[in-house]
Hints:
By secondary structure, this protein is of the alpha+beta class. Among the domains are: about 1-50, no CATH class; about 50-80 and about 95-160, Tetrahydropterin Synthase, Chain A; about 265-375, no CATH class. The protein is about 70% helix and about 15% strand. The protein has seven helices and eight strands; from the N terminus they run βββββββααααβααα. The protein has helices at about 80-90, 100-115, 120-125, 125-145, 165-295, 300-320, 330-375, and strands at about 5, 10-15, 25-30, 35, 45-50, 50-60, 65-80, 145-160. The protein has a three-stranded antiparallel β-sheet, covered by helices on one side. The protein has a three-stranded antiparallel β-sheet with strand order 6-7-8. A two-stranded antiparallel sheet has the order 1-4. Helix 2 packs across helix 4 (about 125-145) and helix 5 packs parallel to helix 7.
Amino acid sequence: MLGYRVPRPDEAMLISGGKYGMNGAPFRVVTGHGAFVLPFTRKTNFLTLAMCEAEVSETCVTRQGISLNVRAVIAFKVGNDQESIVNAGQRFLSDQDQMSTLTGRIFAGHLRSIIGSMTVEEIVTERQKLATEVLDGSKAEMAKIGLTVDSLQIQSIDDLGSGYIDAMAAPHNAAIQRQAQIAQAQANQASAEAQQQSQRAQAEYARQTAVVQAEYKAEVDRAQASSAQAGPLAEAQAQMEVLAARAELAKRQAELRERELVAEVIKPAEAEAEKVQILAKADAQRVTMQAEAAASHNRVALDRMLIEQLPQIVKEAAAGLAGSNLSVLNGAEGLSELAAGLVAQGLTILDSVKKGLNGEEAAAAGAVQASAGNDDAQ
Length: 378
């Protein structure tokens, strides 16, 4: 809009040409907002409110009469209040660079005044005190021209080659050097002790390692010796076990062969002997019966007698077989076969007796006939 002006955030707009300035000021101050400015009848100017900087390099004389060159940096700006802006505007609006020049001169004067009341030792060791006193001394004067100081930094202090500051620092340097030497000696001693401790530790470690290696080697040697002995011992043990197994096998084979001999030779022989005994006994009984039959001349009685004696014959045969320790191999079937065999033997014996009796009878008959023939011949 024509005639409407707005200042920047770090500026103050000064409008002159009217009679409405505050407290008799020749212009109106506008900050933070815009204002309508009548053309031709009003004039607008802008005053910076930004931070400014001034450097001071001043040769000062201390209370001891020693010359020092002091360099400092001052950070300042125009105050934010209406009065400060008016005071600064009246002094610096046409040449705002003059603010840094004037500020430097003001601080240079106060710096010479304050340093003149202090010793070199105080200036060197108490720089903050020096800066504070300079600020306090210049505050009122700076306020009159509308400026405020944010900070003052003492950058350097030089004795201009007189050597005073170096001499003043010499005892401290010597003490520091002594302390440094002592610290270095202590560090060297600690390092030497640490090195000796490390060497002792290494030697102890080497000794322990050698002991452990020796023990390990001895253990390995014992294990190898034991292993070397264990081979023949194990082989001998194995051979003994083989021999024992062979002996056990031979024993079992002998027992088996013994049982086979008993079953194949002894038992049949015993059975045959029993059979012979039974036949002999039966033959004796047959002779007795023949004698009895011959005495009675009764064939029917003889047959009856033979039949009655058959169970006894079978019983005797069974008793004989019972005493012969005969083994039955096929259970009930074998037992049945054995009983049938006994009966068959009894019948065989009975048959033999009958044949014998018939032969004897025939012989007797022949003898009778022969006798009769002899009698007839006679």
